[in-house]
DNA sequence: CATTGTGAAGGAGTTCACAGCA
DNA sequence: TGCTGTGAACTCCTTCACAATG
């Protein structure tokens, strides 16, 4: 779901599957918790439970990184933390800019987990001149006019867009032009970017809509189960196409 | 990625693939924009471009809903908006509660796109007694003590968790016990829930870590490309196992 | 002998390419 | 003629089940 376009066939890269990459942060979090409790080793079964995945999947995921476990014993927690951190590129420091310091942008700036793992909020940028200079989460907000300079001066390659939908594409283009190659988009828009730029999106309303779909389905199944229990099987199983009996031919607004 | 566990084999349900469900909101958004510009019909090619997917995929997705297009012409915008809305369950109203009114919770409460499509913030809940009664986004915050009553009085089935990680699992359990069956989790924790409850998670730091992985890979490829360009092919292609030459045998903190 | 690491089977999602239809 | 709808091929991911092994 991440980028859509894969980067390139990659000259015999040790291709870690995208699905695996997406789970590594989950494992890392679980491992970090174990590490803080000074647990020395952990089995695939235990770790899988903590991360909310199945153990075969976890073992296969780890097998892409190398053979870091010990048969009969499990995995060394500290060592795995290090290996996964390195694989994810968290042993280096990633300066990040957040563009759009509204409610959400401010919340992101204040988010603690940010700094914890290799990420550092290098700058906050907003288009509102009234915001300029005002500190948010201890960092002074800078004006959009200086975006390019800020990116370059700080060597930023990861940008977070938390602007209104209307501004997102333009901000995105400026970020990319200034050298950003990874974007985390909170604006409800599809961003188009050149090849080689990664975009991930976080979209509240999409998530809610997906939940609503399942919620509705549950209600439907409940009703169905009830009907079946009552053995009142009178469902006319044969509508031309659309799986659905009473739909207006034209929509009612 | 949503729930992990599928709901049940479903008595001959018209199984819309999960991947398709996850794209329907995207199509809906693009269609809504077209609708607002009074565009009457749209081809799979155009709509796919607007939604950022490929047209074959879009056509296959729509084929799961039914045959709503016209060959040689395209899709009727208004009709599709209605069909997708209905499929997603957006023709009804979904009361939602947000638990945890910190920076993020407040940002979510203020988020406009919320109300736009079938969702209504029925209540805001926080554990801090000092917050009680204080209005956020025009809605008075209520105390966690009343959580169960609030859920039941409002017939809430979708809950949003925006608490700190430590509180999330407990809040989740109370929500579920009170009747919530869909949860959108912003806390950086794995929630465990009984069967039949859907959880979707939104996790900033996971997204950033995934971006960092790709970012690091880009840097590596760049270096590789450079090396190749200089034709200095002196890569010793044979390290026992771990795809990596200089790793400390034990991690350095 | 408990637990990893992994071939092989199975399933889900994507893309191709073209038949079918307005 | 132009565009949809879809079987079939393909790629990616997950799960099974067991041989390998510290």
UniProtKB/TrEMBL annotation, chains A, B:
Q: Which residues bind DNA?
A: 26-65
The UniProt keyword set, sorted, is:
Cytoplasm, DNA-binding, NAD, Repressor, Transcription, Transcription regulation
Q: Where is the CoA-binding domain?
A: 89-190
Give the residue range of the signal peptide: none
The protein's predominant localisation is cytoplasm
Q: Which GO terms describe its cellular component?
A: cytoplasm
Q: What Gene3D superfamilies would the database entry show?
A: NAD(P)-binding Rossmann-like Domain (3.40.50.720), Winged helix-like DNA-binding domain superfamily/Winged helix DNA-binding domain (1.10.10.10)
Spell out the molecular function terms from Gene Ontology.
DNA binding; DNA-binding transcription factor activity
Write out the similarity annotation. Belongs to the transcriptional regulatory Rex family.
The free-text function statement in the UniProt record for this protein reads:
Modulates transcription in response to changes in cellular NADH/NAD(+) redox state.
Task: Output the PANTHER family linked to this UniProt entry.
Answer: REDOX-SENSING TRANSCRIPTIONAL REPRESSOR REX, REDOX-SENSING TRANSCRIPTIONAL REPRESSOR REX 1
Quaternary organization: Homodimer.
Tell me what this protein is called: Redox-sensing transcriptional repressor Rex
- Organism, per UniProt? Streptomyces sporangiiformans
Taxonomy of origin reads: Bacteria, Bacillati, Actinomycetota, Actinomycetes, Kitasatosporales
């Amino acid at each position: 779901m991440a980028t859509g376009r894969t980067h390139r066939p990659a000259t015999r890269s040790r291709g870690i599957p995208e699905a695996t990459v997406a789970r590594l942060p989950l494992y890392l979090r679980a491992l970090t918790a174990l590490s803080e409790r000074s647990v020395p080793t952990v089995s695939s079964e235990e770790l899988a439970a903590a991360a909310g995945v199945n153990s075969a999947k976890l073992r296969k995921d780890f097998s892409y990184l190398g053979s870091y476990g010990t048969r009969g014993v499990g995995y060394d927690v500290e060592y795995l933390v290090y290996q996964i951190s390195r694989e994810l590129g968290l042993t280096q420091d990633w300066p990040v800019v957040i563009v759009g310091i509204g409610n959400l942008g401010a919340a992101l700036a204040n988010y603690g987990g940010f700094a914890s793992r290799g990420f550092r909020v290098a700058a906050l940028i907003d288009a509102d001149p009234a915001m300029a200079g005002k500190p948010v989460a201890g960092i002074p907000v800078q004006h959009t006019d200086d975006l390019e300079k800020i990116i370059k001066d700080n060597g930023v390659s990861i940008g977070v867009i938390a602007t209104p939908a209307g501004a997102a594409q333009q901000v995105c283009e400026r970020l990319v032009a200034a050298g950003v190659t990874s974007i985390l988009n909170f604006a409800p828009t599809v961003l188009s970017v050149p090849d080689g730029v990664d975009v991930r999106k976080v979209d509240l309303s999409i998530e809610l809509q997906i939940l609503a779909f399942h919620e509705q389905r549950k209600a439907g199944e409940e009703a169905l189960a009830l009907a079946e229990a009552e053995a009142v099987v009178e469902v006319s199983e044969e509508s031309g196409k659309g799986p659905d009996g009473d739909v207006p031919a034209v929509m009612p607004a």
